[in-house]
Structure formats: structure tokens, C-alpha cells
Amino acid sequence: MINLIKQTNNNKVIFVKKISDLKKSKDLQTKKLCIIKTDFTDLHGLKAIRQKYPELEIWLCSNEISRKNILVANSFGIKNVIPYPFDMKIINEFFKNKTEEEPPACVLENQSWLTGQKIMIVDDNPMNVELLAETLSGSGMKISTFLKPLDAGIAAGKEKFDLFLLDIMMPDMSGFELAKIIKDSELNEDTPIMFISALSDSENKITGYNIGSCAYIEKPFDINVVRSQIINTLKTKQLQNAMNHKKESFIAMVTHDLKAPVKAEIAALEMLAQNYMHSANEFEKEIVGDLLGASKYMKNLLDNVLNKYSFDNNEIMLNKEKYVLDNLIIESVEETKYLMKEKGLKFDYVNKTRKSSAAIDYLEIKRVVHNLLMNAIEYSPKNSEITIELSENKKYFVFSVKNRSKGIPLGNPDDIFNKFVSYANKHKKVGSGLGLYIAKRIIDAHNGTIHIDTKQKDYIRFVFTLPK
């Protein structure tokens, strides 16, 4: 076979019977193709050769080719495994298609935007993990590798990543189960997932795509193709994030511009409401009250959108001072009285505290109380009662709002605090799904807790706590 290669008069190809023979070669840097005969037990020296001669194409040839051996070769970055003895036509074809002008496969070092991108690789086979990590090295990306999917699941719940590369067949937990954990996490629910697996049947592929993966790559894989898929997935995600940021910025800008005229409208309607306070014309008085209530509802929506934008971009800064919670609650009830009156609602407020002074951001906590009251008003049946209570224990003040309701159509009621989750459609109402999301973010920022209690039939009760 060596003589046959020499007869081709091609000085850019070399054939060796074992990897250790390459150490004797003095002109390996001048070669384009290296063919190594192997029984797949001596591949550990390949890594050093590939690192020293990155431009050298390496093929393995053997008379013991099996799927298992191909996977082993692939784990060392070898994409071509051919039978021995081999046909010289494949060598001629290789050099026919290989030209000096051929562009490099994908130069990660020139992709400056990749710097800082966080990639998680999870595979119980250390060689596969090492191969993928090595492929992405030099890009500026931050690579986290895990051999145990349980550890990877814990990390995904604590840190935001830009891409997950998951094997499927792993002990303790499959890649599919790990993907579900990732999708259920708050930090990585929108992070792209790519499955890389030796399972090639359509059922597993469909399962992967149904979970939400952006790609399903079969082993053995071409490392250059996988690298390109990774880069293009990250590029697509970055473009989506940029578009979403522009959209959010535009919405925030428009919302901010609307606040001024809405405030002016509320001020004017409040003056009219004062003038009609002692008027005998109940019809006109009712119209002014309805308009004032609608304007305050609109202002609340605008405030929620702006607060959502601020929280999502970590721009919210709490300004804590000592305030009396009892006064704050009374003010909030007063500001929503027109909406209560429109539906014939009654409210019962009980203050069970001795002193309700707490270090809070007054405007933000008032926003929480206002959002909870607006929610109770919106979903209470006409002519029913809303019960408001302020109590205390050793460490916390406890605020609650209870109203009649048909219930919440969610498996976990506390999911109502997630962004854009609303049960307005269920009750044929208009709702943005932001009020309760904003409330939770504000309470969390105050080191308090908020939850919903649906234990009492036909009632729902929102409860939040604030440290004393």
C-alpha cells in the first residue's frame, strides 16, 4: 500500500501503519492528508498530532470497522474512517476537490461577537465533552462542561446560558429530562438547546424537537458542520435578542410619552368630580366617575409596562424610607373607589397591627397594593365584597386582599405571577398579564414573599409580606 501511494507521485499524502510511526516523519508539516492504519486501541496520540498540525487531514483505515469504532474515531475529531485495503480513487478524489484557494472552514477567532457567550456541554462520555470543548476553544466563549446531568440541571437553575449541547443517553437522567428542567427554569426557559446523539431514529428526533430543541445532530458528526450550527444558532439568538430589545425600547418610549396626557386627564377629571360632588345630576356625576376610573386604570397599565421594562433591564432602584403601611392602604383604596362604585362593590378593611411603619419604597409598594386591588375589582362579581387585611407576626407585616372568584385555570396558581400570564380571557376580560408579575418583582426586591391562596371555595386571596 505504501508503494501504491508512492506511485501516485503525490508528495502531499502519507500512509503509516500505526500512529507512533508519525514521530519518525520529518516533513509532516508539508502533507495535506495522513492515512493511518489502526485497530482503534492506539488513538490517544491523535490529539497531540491534530494540535501540532491543524491543517493536516487525518483519515483512519482498518479492517475492523464497526459503528462503535467509528464513534470512537469521531470522538477524537476524525471524520473519515475507510476500509483497509483502500481504493486509491478516494485519495485522488480528495485532492481533486481540495484546492489551495479553498476558504477555511470557520475561523472562530475572527468572530469577536462570540466573546462571552456561555455554552453548556453535557455528555457522560469525557472524550465527547473534550472534543466539543476543544472545537469551541479560542473563540472567547465561556464553556461549562458536565459529565453528570443532575449537576448540569442544578447549574442551569443558577446561571444564564446562551446555548446547551446535550447528549441523550446518559445515566441517572436522559438529555430529554434535562432539557425539560432547563425549559422550566426562569433563567434559561428561552435558551436554545441542541441534542447531539447516536440515536438516529425518527421517534427520538421528534421528541427532541417537541421539547423545543433547535437542532438534532447525529453521531458520528462532522465537527466543522457542528461548529457552524453552533455559531449560526448563537447568531440567530443574538439577532432575536436585538430585535426584542428594540421592540421593548419602542414600547417603553411610547408608554412614557403617554403618561403625561393621561396624568393631565386624571387631574382634569378629578376637578370635575369635585364640582359634581354635590350636584343633583346623578347621571353626569356617574359619567365623570366612570371616566376618572377608566383613566386611572389606563395610568396603572402604563406604569406596569414601564416597570416591567425597568425590571427586565435591571434599572429599578429602590428608595426605602420609613412609611406607615396603614396610610398607604387607605390612599390606595381611595384612589380606586370610583371603579368599586361602578360595580357596586363594598370593601372591608381591617388593620390588626399596633404600628405599621416599615422601611419601604413607598411608590413601589403602593403600586403592588394598587395592582392587587385593581385585580380584585376586575374579577369580583358585581355587588360583592372585597376584604382587605393588614396584620403582623414577629418578623413580617402581612397584607392580604380577598374577593369572590371562579378560580384560576392554572395547574400551579402561583404561575399567575409569571410575565404575561393572565386569566383575563377565561373571564372575558382585558388584561396585560403584567400587574402581578410587577408586584412579585417589587416584593422580591423588598425581601418579602407573595403568593395566592385558593383553598377557600369561590374565593381567591392574594397575600404578600414585608420585613419589619
TrEMBL record:
<feature type="domain" description="Histidine kinase">
    <location>
        <begin position="253"/>
        <end position="468"/>
    </location>
</feature>
<keyword id="KW-0597">Phosphoprotein</keyword>
<dbReference type="GO" id="GO:0000155">
    <property type="term" value="F:phosphorelay sensor kinase activity"/>
</dbReference>
<keyword id="KW-0808">Transferase</keyword>
<protein>
    <submittedName>
        <fullName>Hybrid sensor histidine kinase/response regulator</fullName>
    </submittedName>
</protein>
<feature type="modified residue" description="4-aspartylphosphate">
    <location>
        <position position="167"/>
    </location>
</feature>
<dbReference type="InterPro" id="IPR005467">
    <property type="entry name" value="His_kinase_dom"/>
</dbReference>
<dbReference type="InterPro" id="IPR001789">
    <property type="entry name" value="Sig_transdc_resp-reg_receiver"/>
</dbReference>
<feature type="domain" description="Response regulatory">
    <location>
        <begin position="118"/>
        <end position="234"/>
    </location>
</feature>
<keyword id="KW-0418">Kinase</keyword>
<dbReference type="InterPro" id="IPR003594">
    <property type="entry name" value="HATPase_dom"/>
</dbReference>
<dbReference type="InterPro" id="IPR036890">
    <property type="entry name" value="HATPase_C_sf"/>
</dbReference>
<dbReference type="InterPro" id="IPR003661">
    <property type="entry name" value="HisK_dim/P_dom"/>
</dbReference>
<dbReference type="InterPro" id="IPR011006">
    <property type="entry name" value="CheY-like_superfamily"/>
</dbReference>
<dbReference type="InterPro" id="IPR036097">
    <property type="entry name" value="HisK_dim/P_sf"/>
</dbReference>
<dbReference type="Pfam" id="PF00072">
    <property type="entry name" value="Response_reg"/>
</dbReference>
<dbReference type="Pfam" id="PF02518">
    <property type="entry name" value="HATPase_c"/>
</dbReference>
